[in-house]
Amino acid sequence: MFKRASIYASFLLLIWLLSPITSFGAVGGIKDRVDLNVENVGILPTSPFYFLKEIRRDLMRMFTKDPVSEAFLELQIVNETAAELEKVQEFKSNNILAITKSIENYKTAQKRLSSKLEEIKRLPKGRASSKLIEELASKVVLHERFLRSFEERYTNQEELKQLTESAKKELGKTTQAISKAAPAKELVQAVRKTLISTTTPVASDDVTKQEIIKSVIDNLEEGASENSKVSFMELRNEFISTSTITTPTIDITTSTIATSTVLGTSTQSVVPTLLPL
Q1: pLDDT tens per residue, range 19-49
Q2: In this structure, which of 27, 123, 129, 225 has its CB flanked by the most CB atoms within 10 Å?
Q3: Which domain holds residue 104?
Q4: pTM, to two decimals
């Protein structure tokens, strides 16, 4: 009996060591990629030992009972699966099956998170903690940017582009679920704090930034109650410019352009009309 218990304990320890649930930190990578703040990505879905990582996550779920703590755990796993997807793409950029599996893992993780947020909504007091709201707001904006960046790498591969679009839809559903599980006032404050953060900018260019902000706020508003929608409308007016794309002004110096046309023995000056651009 003791020997069997020792073997079982060793097996659990092996799972723990091989498949760490990591804390938020920094991840290396190519310069133009989004930093998902995962310190150690660990085993990738392409590894035959990935099942050990999944077993450990299931064990963590088994011993996490409080709904808010469960949501924290699922949010962490969502972020890890995004980091896994990033690493798989980095090392196996031409492996469609590997990338597809990683995207599907990410979508599954998003569905689990949405489910936990629905449970929080149904609680008697039915609201997420302030810390969870801040983390959710931060990660929603970060993942919106991540998926857009990821999609841009596969503009010529329709299958992966469609898969990324489906992942964005799952993220949108999660964002809507956040509106149902968090008080509008606190959520607006948390999103505003994320959007004005200088340490984690929304995007490097203004147009992309506006698109990301619009997508996030639209999903938050769609999931909000009728009484709360006005809060997100005000947030949209605060951050989304009414003219995100400006037409460049062309400075034309109006001068007389003369062309000579010989008509018999006379010369005629023709001044063309400059039409407005």
Answers
A1: 444 333 333 334 457 888 888 899 999 999 9
A2: 27
A3: 22-239
A4: 0.75
58 is a domain residue: yes
Upper half-sphere CA count for residue 187 (Cβ side, 13 Å)? 29
Residue 14 covered by a domain? no
Which candidate, 173, 189, 177, places its Cα nearest to that of 130? 189
Taking only the tens place, the pLDDT of each residue in 140-181 is: 999 999 999 998 888 888 889 999 999 999 999 999 999 999
d(C-alpha 251, C-alpha 270), whole Å: 23
- Let me know if residue 146 belongs to a domain: yes
12 lies in some domain: no
Determine the residue type at 131. K
Q: Which of the 8 DSSP states describes residue 124? A: S
Any idea what the Cα angle at residue 154 is, between residues 151 and 158, rounded to 5°? Answer: 100
Structure tokens at 46: 């392409």
Q: How many domains are there within the chain?
A: 1
CA distance 30 to 38: 15
